[in-house]
Amino acid sequence: MPKGGDLHIHLSGAIRAESWARWAADDGLCYVTGTSSLTAPPCNDAGRIPATQLVGDSTLLALAIDAWSMRHWRRESGSGADHFFATFGKTAAVGIRHLGDMLAEVTSRAAAQRISYLELMSNPDDGSIARLAARVGWTPDFATMRDRLERGGLRDSLRAAVRTLDRAERRQRELLHCGTPMADPGCDVTVRYIYQVVRSRSAEQVFAQILAGFELPAVDRRFVSFNLVAPEHGAGAIRDFDLHMRMIAWLRPSHAGVPITLHAGELSEQVAPAQAMRSHVRQSVEVAHASRIGHGVDVLHEDDAEAVLREMAARHVLVEIALTSNDLILGVHGAEHPLSAYRSHDVPVALVTDDEGVSLTDLTHEYARAVTDQHLDYPALKAMARNSIVFSFADDSTKARLRSALEDGFARFEARRE
What we know:
By secondary structure, the chain is an alpha/beta fold. It contains 19 helices and 11 strands. The protein folds into 2 domains: 19-68, no CATH class; 96-414, Metal-dependent hydrolases (TIM Barrel), CATH 3.20.20.
């Protein structure tokens, strides 16, 4: 079945644990056995061994895979959210040195599932914008903040990010043999990028990253938006949520052509107090003017939830639905999931993977789960696949090409079924 696009996929979270182990070995990193984490050399004692041992020792590798993904995690063993979000720090030492390899892995996997379009969340600036913000410091005067960042070299960081992405895409095409008779189907997957703003950082760093996310589409058309990432239930994220929305609202008028997608409502009673679930979706729509919402799981806990749902429907705000992720992190599944509420209120929805490498899923399994867990039929799945292109942030000509290809794919798929 053709599936259109995946609009919500964190690039680092999409990578399989086996790939992290292989790249760590290639880079001469160390594996810390006590924490199952990667770190820079020297690897000089029994608890800090060369990562090359991972790829040659199936027992060690199995432990690493369990630590770097949700494999073998059980609810009775502890918080799914804690285990999930801890995985990123354990492999962070690899950095973005293998960005091209990551692109090759994700696009090849997408093509094998009849996915034609990806919007990948990534940070190709390698932290330079956050470091710039730390040097500049914080002032609550947004205009002054913007001017300080621009004078401090924000444009240089943006151009460097574009050069990093250029190198990564060349590496991807090399690995996939694009332009040759042996070309992997992943070569034909259209990719756009969403810049990640780490909402758990200091106010000056979040502001700088939001500004960068607004500016990048004008620097390079491969970038189409930005998103706030990191646990929404974190203390800093909850404390500063209103501030972050005001930052976006203040910057948006000068970047009116940049559509916005925001993680909002990735909360449940398992991870957050009831007070935190009263307004995040509404604020993301009304204050930040988000065109799409990632997750939106707690929408029925919002103040006047019916009004929120009606407003989302009227504004055609699409919700990116990540069923496996919502189950593993938030413990929300089956009838507890708000997917049926969104659909009954005519709020557009599309299925997404979120972090398929960590969750050990893919978009095909998300479609299957929509059938088994949410009891959706083929017309509903087909509508969501169409939404994934219609509500994408691709330019109009690209969107028209993808929509035409999707309809052709449906026609061939349905002819075979008959």
